[in-house]
User: Fold this.
Amino acid sequence: MFEKILIANRGEIALRIHRACREMGIRTVAIHSTADADAMHVRLADEAICIGPPAPAKSYLNAHAILSAATISNAEAIHPGYGFLSENADFAQMVEEHGFVFIGPSPDHIRLMGDKIVARTTAKEAGLPVVPGSPGAVESLAEAGTIAAAIGYPVLVKASAGGGGRGMRVADTADDLQTAFEQARKEAENSFGNPEVYIEKYLRTPRHIEVQILADAHGNVVHLGERDCSLQRRHQKFLEEAPSPALNDVQRAEIGRIAADAARKIGYRSLGTMEFLYENGEFYFIEMNTRLQVEHPVTEMISGLDLVREMIRVAAGAPLGFAQEDIRFTGHSIECRINAENPVTFLPCPGRVGDYHAPGGLGVRVDSALYAGYTVPPYYDSMIAKLIVYGTNRNECLMRLRRALEEFVIDGLETTIPLHQRLLAEPDFINGEYDNRWLERFVGGQ
Ligand code: ADP
Assistant:
């Protein structure tokens, strides 16, 4: 096992990785920008190295500075967390070329899944159902028209280099296609420097259901069940739960098996997530995330596994310590993302935290790097805490979540806690009846 790991991230996820390392007896090296000198991940790590000024491009995205920090601290491996460089294949390759272990999949797998057209083709070949659409890139408006007519409107024009919901345009009818095609190409060119687009059937009321998989370097692959992440705003997840209220045990086992088989076929190693749209009883693969995800704790709560520890173990070459039939899912878990944002306008609200009190008690977990007196810097993501609750069933989980949200005190900042509280009073949410566009309708109508 590794003796020392460098954590190439900040905030709650840097802390989460640090905690797994401590429990495994691994020393940690934190990196930080000048804006994060008094951050919690810096305070708790065994060593900390300042790698640059506040702007992410000069610090947390600065591969050379991170590799220098790994060299001078004698770290053996680098955990990228999520966001920043976690899905950057060139970075993963540089890490390996410099003699460190990248705690994640191989650079080739990151590259494969980073291009959406290639990912779609790969997924299809590996036996995953995909959304009906163009076989590859669509070069001209005429070609787009032929394909759209064949699959039927509405269609979605998507950037092959896409991410974060950018470079995506819906065409409801043939009359909208020209505008959608041109706008998606333009946005793709501006955002990603690559105008290539493809076409998919646009599903009107899908749910976002994703399957967690875990694979070692010896061909062993398991799935760890699904998460329902349909509650999103502007393609940003807001609340996640496991298991999905929309699936029964048979559907759950089936999609899990299909996802694990696909991961095995492509020779994947590490943690990964297959994302699907689910509508009218059918699953459609949309993408694979080749990293640890924000919402991984809900899977940990119902499976009893420490996913970060497992990720580190397989990166060190250890075989999985269990088979699919050893994994037992019990109870229900929900995660609320708490952002430093106005809960109505969603404008970021960085600033100094006054009083701080995190909820506790049976089944309550808070993953956060906040403390009283800490100043949330304006340069990074606005998520400041994750409240994760476990219950023996969904109803108990909801009751506990209401209680925990009531206890949470974060003075001095506006947060999304009041919106979570309103959500928890909604009959649709209580009954588990929501789709990907439910939250937008809910906040739009307030
Ligand atoms: P990104 O990488 O930009 O997040 P995704 O392909 O994961 O792009 O899609 C983001 C979100 O857009 C999905 O969670 C879903 O809400 C919506 N979406 C993507 N493809 C479709 C589709 N074919 N039909 C309906 N909604 C879609």
User: Anything to note?
Assistant: The radius of gyration is 22 Å. The chain is about 35% helix and 25% strand. The first strand starts at residue 4 and ends at 7. The CA atoms of residues 232 and 238 lie 5 Å apart.
